[in-house]
User: Which sequence fits this backbone?
């Protein structure tokens, strides 16, 4: 076994949160920081080309390609869960939509006892992380947005005519146009701002990590798969990881920070002996500390689609008739980062209510200019059709799932049970979403484009028929959170400072700490979490905090700890 020298801060996971932490914790030059990433560097050109989403999501190198267990309420189907496996994590393979969620979401976190996480508290961190190019073009731009931050947020360089039709159709259906989904009013129809810079993807790796790789106090190791956290008693002191077939250990003088995501972080805690004792011991792992909430509380947005074949050929297709257009787009991109290849595909969407009585929007739309093809895994329809697809997700599902160990092998994928559609409310909201989506797509603005509805299809009309379609065809929209939730109840894993309850020198900083799923895409909120966490970590480091009792166990869990 090889060994590395010790560091002040050891970050596991070079994804959306880990890149932020690596930047902020190393900025002063005072602290030695190590970032471990299981995947490779973000060198693939398809990562940086916005329309390279399909190649990277199909990649066996850049994508963890998780699968859930068969989902009981989705026809017994196992569901494909893409997650980024490279520097930048899922920010390197996502659709780049810049969405924070609703202010209510963060006030709700605070109402659950998470002091410091209200919308008023987190807005400064959203502003800090941004370079919002359109800051003077949107209402209240400087109140809600920032300039000069590492994460570049831009307007589209190219807008597909189908997106224009959607925004017009939404207004014809009675929805107002919203210029900024992250401003004073989320509700409405409009164009997404995107995490791009100069016509290329601005992943968290490009925004936060790449510019600071030359810092002498920051080391980044790729291809390093974390196997377990090392403990001395109740204090985390390092990480054992596998690289090039050999194990190595890195030690942390101050803190180990898990930023491996909503799947990886609970899996690593369980492999390290932290979590429900019975689950840990059944795999022959020695229990270090019992925390019953590790791997529980899994939440995700489930997406259902309405797809129309279109006749104007504005959709993206691999049909032979698109060859000249594709060559033109490639030329525009290579010579000036212009044209269709700068598109994030999901350029337009909206936030609407399934019921007018709702206080805030509970449905989100993404319009994409192609036929839905199972996360790009089945390309056959793209060779046959031009189409457009309106995706609908229910923003605040009641269903809760789990992440559990399959074995003690750190290279074995965990057992993911999303438990989709476990409550009638979740299904009912999607049924309403399909009906509302159809109403928009049937407006006059789409008349020049519509040929025929491919899915659900004209024969699917009753609520029960739509439910059956949802069971057969709904898929993840890539927003898993909650498996190491923040709070002070007996199922909480971290406290409001993101320190693991009952342990010293160990935090979790990623989407897994969200107690509830926010109303929107999750990359921007995860980035904000890491920005705030960096401040908390540096505050504690300056105060010399780090004794084994600094993260007390919630009172409700006392009886379950180390019997």
Assistant:
């Amino acid at each position: 076994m090889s060994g590395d020298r010790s560091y002040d801060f050891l970050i596991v996971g070079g994804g959306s949160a880990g890149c932020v932490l690596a930047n902020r914790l190393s900025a002063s030059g005072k602290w030695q920081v190590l970032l471990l990433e299981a995947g490779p560097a973000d060198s693939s050109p398809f990562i940086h080309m916005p329309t390279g989403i399909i190649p990277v999501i199909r990649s066996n190198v850049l994508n963890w390609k998780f699968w859930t267990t068969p989902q009981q309420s989705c026809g017994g189907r196992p569901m494909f869960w893409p997650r980024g496996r490279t520097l930048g994590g899922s920010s390197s393979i996502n659709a780049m939509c810049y969405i924070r969620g609703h202010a209510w979401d963060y006030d709700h976190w605070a109402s659950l006892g998470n002091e410091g996480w209200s919308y008023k508290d987190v807005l400064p961190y959203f502003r800090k992380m941004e370079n919002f190019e359109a800051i003077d073009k949107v209402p209240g731009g400087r109140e809600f947005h920032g300039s000069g931050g590492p994460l570049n947020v831009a307007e589209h360089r190219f807008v597909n005519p189908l997106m224009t039709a959607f925004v017009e159709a939404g207004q014809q259906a009675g929805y107002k146009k919203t210029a900024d989904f992250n401003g004073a009013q989320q509700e409405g129809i409009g164009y997404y701002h995107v995490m791009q810079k100069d016509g290329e993807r601005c992943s968290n790796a490009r925004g936060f990590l790449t510019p600071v790789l030359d810092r002498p106090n920051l080391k980044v190791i790729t291809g390093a798969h974390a196997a377990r956290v090392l403990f001395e008693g109740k204090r985390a002191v390092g990480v054992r990881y596998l690289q090039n077939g050999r194990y190595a250990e890195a030690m942390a003088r101050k803190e180990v920070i898990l930023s491996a995501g909503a799947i990886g972080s609970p899996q690593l805690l369980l492999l390290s002996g932290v979590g429900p004792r019975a689950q840990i011991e059944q795999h022959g792992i020695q229990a270090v500390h019992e925390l019953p909430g590790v791997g529980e509380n899994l939440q995700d947005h489930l997406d259902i689609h309405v797809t129309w074949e279109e006749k104007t050929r504005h959709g993206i297709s691999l049909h032979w008739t698109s060859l000249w257009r594709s060559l033109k787009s490639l030329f525009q991109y290579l010579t000036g980062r212009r044209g269709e290849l700068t598109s994030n595909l999901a350029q337009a969407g909206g936030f609407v209510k399934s019921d007018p009585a709702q206080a805030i929007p509970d449905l989100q739309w993404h319009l994409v200019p192609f036929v839905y093809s199972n996360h790009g895994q089945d390309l056959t329809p793209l060779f046959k059709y031009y189409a457009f697809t309106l995706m609908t997700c229910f923003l605040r599902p009641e269903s809760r799932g789990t992440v559990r160990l399959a074995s003690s092998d750190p290279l074995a994928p965990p057992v993911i049970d999303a438990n989709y559609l476990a409550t009638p409310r979740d299904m009912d909201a999607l049924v309403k979403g399909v009906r509302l989506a159809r109403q928009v797509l049937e407006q006059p603005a789409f008349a020049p484009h519509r040929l025929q509805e491919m899915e659900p299809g004209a024969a699917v009309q009753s609520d029960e028929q739509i439910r059956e379609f949802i069971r057969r065809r709904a898929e993840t929209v890539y927003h898993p959170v909650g498996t190491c939730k923040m709070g002070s109840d007996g199922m909480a894993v971290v406290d409001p400072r993101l320190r693991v309850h009952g342990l010293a020198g160990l935090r979790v900083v990623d989407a897994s700490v969200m107690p509830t799923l926010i109303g929107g895409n999750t990359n921007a909120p995860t980035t904000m979490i890491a920005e705030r966490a960096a401040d908390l970590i540096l505050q504690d480091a300056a105060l010399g905090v780090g004794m084994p009792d600094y993260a007390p166990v919630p009172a409700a869990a006392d009886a379950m700890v180390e019997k």
Q: What stands out?
A: The chain has 15 helices and 25 strands.
